[in-house]
Each structure stands twice: as C-alpha cells, then as structure tokens.
Design goal:
14% strand, 2 domains, 287 residues, Chitinase A, domain 3, 10 helices, four-stranded antiparallel sheet, 58% helix
C-alpha cells in the first residue's frame, strides 16, 4: 500500500517539475539543481516502474467500466478510513503524509483504485479450511509461536538503599502488594505492583534477564534502571508454545485469502496487458 502511494507521489512530483522548469529544485552552497535535471533523473530512475503501475491502474479502470463496475463515495471514504487506521495515532499518520509528500488527491486516487481492484478481481475469493491448515503447518514456527511470558509484579523506588530495605521487609513477611502500594512510584503501585502478563521482549533485554530466571513468587534483588531501582516478583510463568490451528484459524484464512487475491490480481493484469494495445512513448524500445 505504501509503495503504491509513494509511486503516485513520485509521479505527481514529476508532473510538478515539468510544469515549472524555471525554478530550481534545490541549491547546494548557492549552486542550483534545476527542476529539469530533477525531472530527467526521476524519469530514468523511477519513471518506468511508475508508468507501468499507472498503466495497470488504467487497465483496471477500463475493465471496471467495461463491466459496469463503479465505486461510491462511501466506499472511497471507508477505504480512506481503513488506510488511516493502519497508523497508531493521528500524529504518526500526519507524519507519514508529510514524509511521503502525499496530497488528499493522491490518497483519493489510491483509495479509488484499491476499491475498483477489489471489485474487478472479485469481492469474494473462496478459501478452504484445508488451504488454511496447509498455510498454518508451513508457517506455524515463524508466525504462530508465542514467546515465553511472565505474570509480573514490580516495585520501583529511587535508591538502591530503599530497594534493599523494602526487600528485607518482604523477606521478613511483609506482603509484596502492600509494600508496592506504600513505596513504589510505578503506575502499577495502586494495583499492588501488578502489571499483568509481560510478553518476551516487552520490557527489554536488560530488565527481562533479571526476572526471567525467577522461580514463582521469588523476589529479585534490586535491579538498576533509568527510572530507579526495581524489585520484581513473578507469580506465574508460561513457556513458549505454538498456537493450535483452531486458535489462529481465522488469521490463517485471512492470510491465504490475501495471497489468493494478490495472485488473482496479478493474473488479471497480465491478461489485460496481453489483450491491450499499450504504447510506451517515453521508452519506445520497450514495446
């Protein structure tokens, strides 16, 4: 998806360059790089792949028109919303647009083409459970394996001396949860230091190595960190394991469907290209 948008953005940049060749694209120690130079290198380095993508898009549009397939404004808006939801926050979405030099027009074009492609290829692609199970068996160790995890409690204080004193009181019989509520400045303090299940790698290697070797209900020695000094208690452990097919069946079905849709799109475009009369005027030797 991002590659497609980047290609559209590059094409737009090339058109802008061609429309205003009098202004420089950049200056290096006062010496200009002209828009003409920029446009020329854009064509030679990226232009052919951009043009081929645009040709494919045009073929999809023509095929949709031939079949009487249209896309509504609601469908475009839903696709735009789906694209937006791929970013964790509004800030990261805006940064993506800024860094990619994308305009609203670019996004609408991409959304419309995506919607048309879905409809031309087919809204429903049948995926059998056998195909999903085969995908699962081939990829279960890479895609469907859970890491080790721990049900963790923590206390975080400012100094090592304070951590040592709290550890001594816990060893003397004070409940870990009570000491966490009384002394820890971690957000988990109000829950008695309980941070819930921690996945392998979630807290970083330096901290993890101090609690991954703890026995259930054993308290760690003071652990230095950028925030302060931690005491950790692991109440439960779960070893790494491969999820069963039933647990990931829906995920496997979706992965197989995506692959089937990509394959169907590729075959359709290949057929449309073979039946079309395509003239590449910028690179006539590629006919």
């Amino acid at each position: 998806m991002r590659t497609h948008l980047a290609l559209v953005s590059l094409a737009a940049s090339f058109l802008l360059a061609c429309s205003a060749l009098g202004e420089p694209a950049a200056k290096v120690n006062g010496q200009p790089i002209s828009l003409e130079e920029y446009a020329r290198f854009t064509v030679h380095w990226n232009g052919y792949s951009i043009l081929q993508r645009l040709i494919n898009n045009k073929l999809i549009e023509q095929e949709a028109e031939r079949r009487g397939i249209t896309v509504s404004e609601d469908e475009i808006q839903r696709e735009l919303y789906r694209q937006r939801q791929q970013h964790p926050s509004e800030e990261t979405y805006k940064e993506f647009l800024r860094s990619s030099r994308l305009t609203e027009e670019d996004l609408r074009y991409s959304a419309r083409i995506n919607c048309l492609s879905q409809k031309v290829v087919g809204e429903e692609i049948s995926v059998s459970e056998e195909a999903a199970r085969s995908f699962y068996e081939e990829n279960k160790l890479q895609l469907f394996k859970t890491g080790q995890r721990w049900k963790l409690k923590e206390i975080c204080v400012e100094t090592e001396e304070e951590a040592e004193e709290i550890l001594a009181q816990i060893k003397a019989g004070k409940p870990f949860e009570e000491m966490a509520k009384a002394h820890s400045f971690s957000p988990s303090a109000e829950n008695g230091g309980d941070v819930g299940w921690i996945e392998e790698g979630e807290r970083g290697v330096l901290l993890e190595r101090h609690f991954r070797r703890l026995r259930p209900n054993q308290v760690s020695k003071p652990v230095p960190s950028a925030e302060g000094f931690y005491l950790f208690l692991v109440s439960e452990k779960q070893q790494s394991a491969v999820k069963s097919f039933e647990e990931v069946k829906e995920e496997a079905m979706q992965a197989v469907e995506r692959a089937a849709r990509i394959d169907a799109y590729g075959k359709l475009v290949e057929k449309l290209r073979s039946d079309a009369r395509i003239e590449v005027l910028l690179w006539p030797d590629t006919q």
